[in-house]
């Protein structure tokens, strides 16, 4: 069994490994601090409170076991551990007396007011400082390595924020923008000092993908984080968390590591100079190309088309969304972009797309009922804004 720990990036990789025939377990983590402060055990008082108030649904898969223990010796034998540089879920709640910290979704407070009172009497909310994240992560990995020394451990890095990956690359790991340029060598040196531990250089893996596929960042990372500034203008950041082409290639690299115990890189797996030397230029796509992408039925392709809409903000492409509505899948990244696009062009034709999405989210159960409710709520808010019956679409969060 392979055990992968971290955030959605480890989850995507776990799915790719499973498709290739490697039994894999993925465990989402909340923060390095929970594992470090719990010292390999689940605190009894919080366990009892969770059972008493029925709070299991409010950990968003970051169970107390995942947060505090990660792996126990009573489980199927591990062939490999993998931990990725994951962003922290905050706030955490620190028990002042016992000095442990845990995460629980604050939606639990409305569900069980008694739990909110119980927690407030014993814990205080904390937000670990982003600038000390790498130290926390390193301490967590070293503690985990010491408790489970016999199994190979792989640390999965992150994609660097190269200028060519604009506009303004974005990572959910808050410190990464500040430290990525120096983190790679430091992480590699640190990992080499741990027994049976290796670091995957994601920049080099992505360079290999780039060398034998479409060499545009939009083809691999199409989703934009959009924000309206105080002056009313939109700003854009490219989401480098969701790299659709990365996971199968990483799975192949790990499969070789399982057989050989080595992480080697090929001649094409070298960062091209263009990534650092040339700034990003937004792509513009023809109307026929936009129509093809939107009608593909694929998350990344349709998201790429919607992102390209913003390259020509004075041109209203809403009717293309309406035409492609039957084919476009459920995707909250695309929904985020469509919401802001609706603020630029309050075109009632978008209601056709919204109607199709409402029908699809009604039967989309893969991400659970909370996801369905939130997605449906956002669609209805956009519809109200477009028709002038609710808040302005740009103000929706």
Mean pLDDT: 94
- Total beta strands: 11
Strand arrangement, major sheet: 2-1-3-7-9
Multimerization state: single chain
What is the global morphology?
globular
The helix tally amounts to 18
Instruction: Bin the strand percentage.
Output: 5-15%
N-to-C terminal Cα separation, in Å? 40 Å
Structural class category = alpha/beta
Low-confidence stretches: 393-397
Q: How many whole angstroms does the radius of gyration measure?
A: 22 Å
Biggest beta sheet attributes: 5 strands, parallel
The helix content, as a percent range, equals: 40-55%
N-to-C order of helices and strands: EHEHHHEEEHHEHEEHEHHEEHHHHHHHH
Could you describe the 3D structure shown?
The chain is an alpha/beta fold and 397 residues long. Helices cover 46% and strands 12% of the residues. The protein contains 18 helices and 11 strands. The strands form 3 sheets. Strands 2-1-3-7-9 form a 5-stranded parallel sheet. A 3-stranded antiparallel sheet has the order 5-4-6. Strands 8-11-10 form a 3-stranded mixed sheet. A hairpin with a 5-residue loop joins strand 10 and strand 11 (234-239). Helix 2 crosses helix 7 (133-147) and helix 16 (332-344) packs parallel to helix 18. The longest helix is centred in the C-terminal third of the chain and has 18 residues, at 369-386. The radius of gyration is 22 Å and the shape is globular. It starts with a strand and ends in an 11-residue tail after the last helix. Mean pLDDT is 94; it is low at 393-397.
